[in-house]
């Protein structure tokens, strides 16, 4: 992350739609370039917060300062803030290149330069071959990519992307992620997404919204409480006694077994905590004679998200059942584990 | 990028988008069809009866006198009529009728008078979706990071005005051509001169009504509701003013909420009155525009 003075400062921000509180006294300060994730359940207030920062909605209570102190929607922010709204659509009857050229002309760039920039932006999202088609014939995914393309036109300093990869196929999603990383070198990019595994790899910081309240914000380590999830594929299933031995390791917080798949939550809070925790885990597995065949970092952010939003109680109860404290008291009957695992696995799979 | 430049860009974009989309085409087709239909109502007697120009002018003078009596909102009681004769108001009215019927091409005068009653409603078709269309589909959210709300509204208003003026000009041009070729009661010189003068009157008359359409487009989030709102307002104001005036005369002034109460003075023989009426129309348009700007600047979009 690159230091920069007060890119976004929010103080005691509140917003209501009638009786419904959409945003509830949020404080948020972002003063560095980079990618910031905004996560939360449906209806948590993510889009409302984006709309307030972008100036689409009037600020009812509290204060927002954008790019060094300007109020959202003010004249000084014109062409410095870019937004990819979640639900906006382009004109159906006008070619996408004409619409993009018009947007660029509002920035003061016209002619050949504008056309080159527009073509480059559309190429970067894989839409270069759709230049002369109207938005009416674009698929949902293409429309999403067009939204991203218009947001990266010019040199915006603050970019708000509302679920930019939702509905995209893996190749295009990867392309958009790479694009976001490149943009973050010169801009603060705030991305909302339900794909927590994707965000975990993409963002420098993350904020979690629940019922209009910001329940956590900071780096991934700060939000996850330095808990790191590791997923392993073993050569054979581990016996209950062996599972207990793994759980007895100092840095192991919880273990979840699904056949030969093992998910381990590690405590990486200390200095070189992750190295030490991994060392302990691998040492124990080798000692038990079950070297991992596959090894990868799991969705630590997802675990933290479920904990912070309270959704873990509904969707990921099985993990709690396997937490260290519980294991000490309960028997590790395999049937019980299998029964309770199924919904958790399904939930994780859907989210990704 | 200056705000003025952005206004022009928005105006151009609105025009091109209107011409490519159904709403703009519908506006053009409907306005031209209704306008020509209205003109044919005026031309019909002369076409079917094949009466002489002189005879027609005499009949038309009576018709224009009646129309003017209505549009100047004079109560029809006999006692009031006597008062009007005494105060020479009717003399002025008669002079006006002569000005429109005998001094200028009568068919064109009658057509323009009739258009003045219809255009306020028709013009709403060209402006109702100015803002509401983009708000409804949230596509305004692509524009707002790159422009100010004021520039957007003024640009759309300018675009709607240019579109309306273009349609009015085409309509007026078609009517003048028809009168010059098919019913040559007057010479081309008189037709063109009066055609330009009455065109200017219709162009000025369009300003407040287009601005009203844009205002309604900022108030309502659905274009169709905005259309119904503006048309409803235009039609309701004279109805309420006329009916409530019977109960309490000052309520008749409700007519001045819109240019209904004074717009006919755009065709007055007195130049000073015409200039004043032009200023009133522009002032009315300015008021609607300012309210629309304030409304849009405070709106949640």
Can you offer a commentary on this structure?
The complex is a heterodimer of chains A (352) and B (301). Chain A is an alpha/beta fold. Chain A folds into two domains: 222 residues, P-loop containing nucleotide triphosphate hydrolases (Rossmann fold); 126 residues, Alpha-Beta Plaits, CATH 3.30.70. Chain A has 14 helices and twelve strands. In chain A, the strands form two sheets. In chain A, strands 1, 2, 3, 4, 5, 6, 7 and 8 form an eight-stranded mixed β-sheet that branches. A four-stranded antiparallel β-sheet of chain A has the order 10-11-9-12, with helices on both faces. In chain A, β7 and β8 form a beta hairpin. In chain A, α2 packs across α3, α3 packs across α4 and α6 packs across α10. Chain B is mainly α and 301 residues long. Chain B has one domain. Chain B contains 13 helices and no strands. In chain B, α1 crosses α10, α2 packs antiparallel against α6 and α11 runs parallel beside α13. The longest helix of chain B is centred in the middle third of the chain and has 33 residues. Chains A and B meet through β4 and α2 of A and α1 and α9 of B.
| Radius of gyration computed on alpha carbons of chain B | 21 Å
Largest binding interface between chains: A-B, 29 and 26 residues
Indicate the percent of residues in helices of chain A. Answer: 25-40%
State the low-pLDDT regions of chain A, or none.
Answer: 315-352
Q: Work out the helix count of chain A.
A: 14
Sheet/helix structural class of chain A: alpha/beta
Mean pLDDT across every amino acid position of chain A: 79
CATH H-level superfamily title of the largest domain in chain A: P-loop containing nucleotide triphosphate hydrolases
| Number of DSSP-assigned strands of chain A | 12
Strand percentage of chain B: under 5%
Order of helices and strands of chain A: EEHEEHHHEHEHEEHEHEEHEHHHHH
Low-pLDDT runs of 5+ residues of chain B are none
How many discrete domains of chain A? 2
Q: Give the overall shape of chain A.
A: globular
The overall pLDDT average of chain B reads 84
Percentage of residues in DSSP E strands of chain A:
25-35%
Determine the number of helices of chain B (DSSP H or I, runs of at least 4 residues). 13
> Biggest sheet of chain A, in brief?
8 strands, mixed
SSE arrangement of chain B, N to C: HHHHHHHHHHHHH
- Classify the helix fraction of chain B into a percent range: over 70%
Q: At the third CATH level, what is the topology name of the largest domain in chain A?
A: Rossmann fold
